Amino acid sequence: MQVRGTLSVLAMVALLAAVAPGGALAAPTAGADGVDAAPASSAVGTGAQNDCSFPVSRTDATGTRVTVSEAPDRVVVLAPSAAQTMWELNEEDRVVGLPTGPTTAYLEGSQNRTDVTNRDGTVNREQVVGLEPDLVLAPNIVPNETVSQLRDAGLTVYKVGFGRSLAAITAKVSLFGRFTGACDRAATVNEEFNGTLDEIRADAPEDRPRVAYFFFNFTASEGTFIHEAIETGGGENIAADVGDRPYPRLSDEVVADRNPQWVVRPSSSSLPSGEPWSSTDAYVLDQTLTVDDNLISQPGPRVVEPMRNMSEAFASTRQVPTDTPTSTPAGTEPATPTVTEGADTTATTSAGGTGSGGQPGFGLVAVLVAAVLGTLALVRR
């Protein structure tokens, strides 16, 4: 793994502490377009928009009314999830700049675009301005100060709100389709997306297994699209009510008390080890699942792929026999699942590589420092 790819993952780790009160990033502004307000069960954005003409104005996550005067010929996207959405809309030819590297390598032709990020994952403002884009699409993790600096340079910048649900994905597809004049294609993408969600729901097991989502000691709670992905896939997220942030730390106490039957991790994260994990039903029965890091971490239409992986896995859930103890007997070594085929189920999807993709907020500085120091020692240069 290259240093830069690792730094992108580490940045995601720090950001998973989410939108903390008083943080440097803006929470979604009430009434801002593209911020979800509907449950994923509603068919958001499936119908073609009646008016797809220009100019078009929408209020972004900073509370700014952003106007796109005409269909943009040159678009810069500052998040992998935004790039994925543009590719799904078949509007990739408009994209002249994006974060290149492992988080977007799965998008055909993406690595031929100009990289608009620095080595630490922050926005390279000079590079963005130099591309002379007609429209810049910024994720919630981009600080408002950076957005203001780009606007002061004369650029049209729309900051997307925090994607708290699967419905936010379809809202974003509709929004980007409107900005690029691809309203009909956006309606098709959303119709297919919602249709796939319906199929996944229909296949969900009646007896929903308890699921722990684990990513570098963090997890996803209620109010995130990853939580909805787990629940829609037929699982019961054991961390739904944990913490006061969308992506809190997953404590040993919660794991021991709620005893997950499945552990799901993105491909960039290792499996947790030791107690209490070793005594959970998931580890006793080797029920762990690895899903594509990019597709589960990026709030975009392709999240349905890891959702299918989860649905198939959850449908095959085995139960620990009632006469089999799940605690580790005294004087014995706790079992830890080996990361090999048969022990850890690795789902194969259309995206490759590792990385993260545009989820919100700054966490505690100590978390980032610890993650950087601990992980950089393992990096191959």
From TrEMBL:
Enumerate composition-biased segments (Polar residues): 314-330
Location of region: Disordered = 314-357
TM regions (residue ranges): 361-379
Where is this chain compositionally biased, Low complexity type? 335-351
Which GO BP terms apply?
A: cellular response to iron ion
Domain (Fe/B12 periplasmic-binding) ranges: 74-318
PROSITE patterns per the record?
FE_B12_PBP
- What are the entry keywords? Membrane, Transmembrane, Transmembrane helix
| PANTHER family, sorted | MOLYBDATE-BINDING PROTEIN MOLA, VITAMIN B12-BINDING PROTEIN
Family annotation (NCBIfam families): peripla_PGF_1
Record's protein name: ABC transporter substrate-binding protein
